[in-house]
């Protein structure tokens, strides 16, 4: 995925100013990335939990997922993690459920879902698994007027960022990328700094192509400082 | 299946806004919707959230449900699904769906990118 450092992201600025807003997560925020065989090294779920999941759930108290994303969580560990967050008192994760939609909201949801779906591998009539979580999450939050969708998937981000040109119906939604939250945690000393560098490198600076298009950690971090320094108190 | 008719919504918002003498900016202030978005609703180019939809309905005085139309659901893929299929045939059909939907996505994305560069 390409790192974009041309302009500050208004969504990240808003989160810097108020980290307690609801942020809906795509499945890839909860699944340990595995880029083998590009690299020999994988990241196990326990390590991912320690360096990424625990920090984000501790820093952002209103993280959410759509119920369909739960079904996309591969393996028992991420599901158990979400189960524990959901069952904790008070709950530490918000689960968006389609059953909470009113009849009018369902019609709006179906309208937006059909617009989004044609640009993905999901078909609402087939209700197939491909891209299901992404389409269901985006159409739900668009109807409810929720603002932020955090993803590490180029297609999902484009559906939001090109909403006007592509008429996806997601004009009210804003995308937050994983690298922006990696920077947020690093900048505020809210996670292990070495682990944040490692996660950035693993996700965005591994292949020759990524090394030719994306900045190394030093340049990334200083460019992000230039874009966002004035917004941190 | 019911869906929102952006055409009906556009006509309703424009007609009621003009009959009440509101500019797009004034309607925007009353509903909390940006005036540019009001313009896009009137051009059938914006699907509002539930909060925006209800605000428009309250300020302009129209029934939300009148903006919906029945849309026939047709899908050529569904015809391929049959309970009579064996497990291995079902697996094959699912694989076929994945390939066809990937192709559909690529065609649609390519056309969206081409439209963008034409209008740039």
What is the topology?
The complex is a heterodimer of chains A (233) and B (120).
Chain A: H1 10-17, E1 23-25, H2 45-59, E2 63-66, H3 67-72, H4 76-87, E3 94-96, H5 103-117, H6 132-144, E4 148-151, H7 154-161, H8 163-166, E5 174-177, H9 178-187, H10 193-204, H11 208-213, H12 217-228
Parallel strand pairs in A: 1-2, 1-4, 2-3, 4-5
Helix pairs in contact in A: 5-6, 9-10
Chain B: E1 2-4, H1 6-19, H2 24-31, H3 35-42, H4 50-60, E2 68-70, H5 76-80, H6 87-119
Antiparallel strand pairs in B: 1-2
Helix pairs in contact in B: 2-3
Q: If you average the pLDDT of chain A, what whole number results? A: 94
> What does the radius of gyration of chain B come to?
21 Å
Structural classification of chain A: alpha/beta
Taken as a percent bin, the fraction of beta residues of chain B is 5-15%
Q: Which pair of chains forms the biggest interface, and how many residues does each contribute? A: A-B, 32 and 36 residues
* Biggest sheet overview of chain A: 5 strands, parallel
Shape verdict of chain B: elongated
Which structural class fits the helix and strand makeup of chain B? Answer: mainly alpha
Helix content of chain A: 40-55%
Low-confidence stretches of chain A: none
Count of beta strands of chain A: 5
Widest sheet: strand ordering of chain A: 3-2-1-4-5
Q: Please state the average pLDDT score of chain B.
A: 87
Residue share in β-strands of chain A = 5-15%
Low-confidence stretches of chain B: none
Task: Name some characteristics of this structure.
heterodimer, A: 233 residues, alpha/beta, 5-stranded parallel β-sheet, 12 helices, 5 strands, 52% helix, globular, B: 120 residues, mainly alpha, two-stranded antiparallel ribbon, 6 helices, 2 strands, 66% helix, 5% strand, elongated
Structure description:
The complex is a heterodimer of chains A (233) and B (120). Chain A is α/β, with parallel strands linked by helices and 233 residues long. Chain A is built from twelve helices and five strands. Chain A has a five-stranded parallel β-sheet with strand order 3-2-1-4-5. In chain A, strand 1 (23-25), helix 2 (45-59) and strand 2 form a beta-alpha-beta unit. Chain B has 120 residues and is mainly α. In chain B, 66% of the residues lie in helices and 5% in strands. Chain B has helices spanning 6-19, 24-31, 35-42, 50-60, 76-80, 87-119; strands spanning 2-4, 68-70. A two-stranded antiparallel ribbon of chain B has the order 1-2. The mean pLDDT of chain B is 87. The interface between A and B is medium-sized, with 32 and 36 residues.
């Amino acid at each position: 995925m390409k790192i974009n450092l041309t302009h500050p992201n208004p969504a990240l600025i808003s989160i810097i100013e108020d980290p307690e807003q609801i942020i809906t997560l795509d499945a890839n925020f909860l699944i340990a990335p595995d880029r083998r065989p590009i690299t020999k090294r994988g990241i196990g779920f326990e390590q991912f939990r320690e360096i990424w999941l625990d920090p984000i759930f501790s820093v952002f108290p209103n993280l959410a997922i759509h119920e369909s994303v739960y079904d996309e969580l591969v393996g028992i560990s991420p599901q158990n993690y979400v189960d524990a967050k959901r069952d904790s008192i008070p709950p530490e994760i918000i689960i968006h459920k389609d059953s909470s939609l009113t009849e009018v909201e369902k019609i709006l949801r179906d309208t937006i879902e059909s617009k989004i779906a044609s640009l993905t591998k999901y078909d609402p009539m087939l209700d197939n698994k491909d891209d299901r979580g992404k389409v269901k999450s985006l159409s739900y939050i668009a109807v409810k007027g929720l603002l932020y969708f955090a993803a590490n998937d180029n297609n999902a981000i484009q559906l939001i960022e090109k909403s006007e040109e592509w008429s996806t119906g997601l004009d009210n939604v804003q995308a937050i990328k994983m690298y922006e939250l990696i920077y947020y945690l690093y900048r505020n000393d809210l996670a292990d700094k070495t682990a944040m560098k490692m996660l950035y490198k693993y996700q965005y600076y591994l292949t020759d192509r990524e090394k030719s298009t994306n900045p190394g950690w030093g340049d990334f971090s200083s460019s992000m400082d230039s874009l966002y320094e004035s917004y941190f108190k | 299946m019911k869906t929102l008719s952006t055409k009906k919504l556009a006509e309703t918002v424009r007609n009621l806004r003009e009959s009440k003498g509101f500019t797009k900016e004034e309607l925007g202030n009353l509903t909390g919707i940006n005036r540019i978005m009001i313009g896009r609703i009137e051009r059938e180019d914006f699907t509002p959230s539930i909060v925006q939809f209800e605000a428009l309905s309250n300020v302009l005085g129209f029934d939300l449900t009148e903006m919906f139309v029945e849309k026939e659901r047709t899908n050529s893929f569904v015809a391929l699904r049959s309970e009579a299929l064996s497990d291995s045939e079902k697996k094959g059909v699912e694989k076929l769906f994945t390939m066809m939907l990937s192709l559909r996505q690529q065609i649609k994305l390519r056309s969206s990118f081409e439209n963008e560069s034409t209008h740039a």
